[in-house]
Amino acid sequence: MWQVLTGCVAVTANLRKRGISCDPVCGYEEETINHTLFECHSARQVWALSLFPTAQGVFPSTSVLTNLDFFFWRFKDIPSHEIFPWILWYIWKARNDKLFSNLDSNPLALLRLAEDEAQAWFLAQAEAIGPAVDPIFAGQPSGNGGYGVSRSLSSYLCFVDGSWKETDQFAGRGWFCISPRGDDPTMGAANIRRSLSPLHAGIEAFIWAMCCMIGADNESVIFLTDCSDLVKIVSSPAEWPAFTPYLKDIQADIEEFATFSLVYVPRSQNGKTDNLARRVRSIPHLVTFVNNFPPHWFV
Predict the structure, then answer these.
(1) Which residues form the RNase H type-1 domain (predicted)?
(2) What pLDDT does residue 53 have?
(3) Fewest CB within 10 angstroms: 11, 167, 226, 250, which?
């Protein structure tokens, strides 16, 4: 947001001011920040589908500051108006996908992904799925029939974690998935031969969780992890060449989802999967568990 407010977004108008020659992105000669996020045809489609009221000459307007003023002050009565930063972010990501990969984004799918990721972030901040306590199933279902999940959520929330200790024979993998329909959560835990590092264990846990979601036909999933390096690896794979074999598997799995997102959450919000991964790591023989109730060795 501060980059938008201070005019520091790398649109072609700003790049030309720095002496960098750029071709028009969408046929519009002057690509400003406001044009990219609000006035471009693809951006207007997203805003028209959102809960924010649009009107010619009012919103979106020709001024980026006026448009942001609507979000900060004039749209406060609109339900879930706080999601606008995620919508702006995904409009920007869609612009980059078109520019660098020639990929077109579906406006409705983009909006739903932004809404779901915002919802996942708010749930994590509010500890809406319950505190990180031991055992992990001490929390009670919420009044809406789920585990603190709003009915407006349209994607599965899958928390993932890996556990690694240099002196142990095995590394642990765990995931905990919450359904948008309010069904009982499902979970998985497995141990494998200890890998090279805690980061390797986290990546292997993430890949296994994706495979489990694909096997369960969960087409729209938001994965949540407390490993910031894992988020960086997935978002900027070219900067992590040492993990290329893993990245090939990750990219192949991502293509199986209708909508996919990987979100960082604090460790305090990932207690369920952390406990699963740690417990299964300590078992002296190979174990794989997937179900909607805790395994006997966990209770």
Answers:
(1) 160-279
(2) 85
(3) 167
* 256 close to 218: Cβ distance less than 8 angstroms: no
CA distance 224 to 227: 9
- b/e 132-156 (16+ beta carbons within 10 angstroms → b): beeebbebeeeeeebbbbeeebebb
Decide the pairing of beta strands 186-193 and 259-264.
unpaired
Please state which of the four CATH numbers 3.40.50.2300, 3.90.1200.10, 3.40.50.300, 3.30.420.10 is assigned to the domain occupying 128-291: 3.30.420.10
Tokens of residue 116, six digits: 């779901």
- Residues 148/129, Cβ–Cβ less than 8 Å: yes
Inter-axis angle of helices 107-125 and 41-49, nearest 10 = 60
Domain boundaries defined on the chain: 2-105, 128-291
pLDDT at 171: 94
Q: Which residues of 49-68 are buried (b: 16+ CB within 10 A; e: fewer)?
A: ebebeeeeeebbbeebeebb
Q: At CA 138, angle to CA 132 and CA 139, rounded to 5?
A: 75
**Cβ 67 vs Cβ 87: under 8 Å:** no
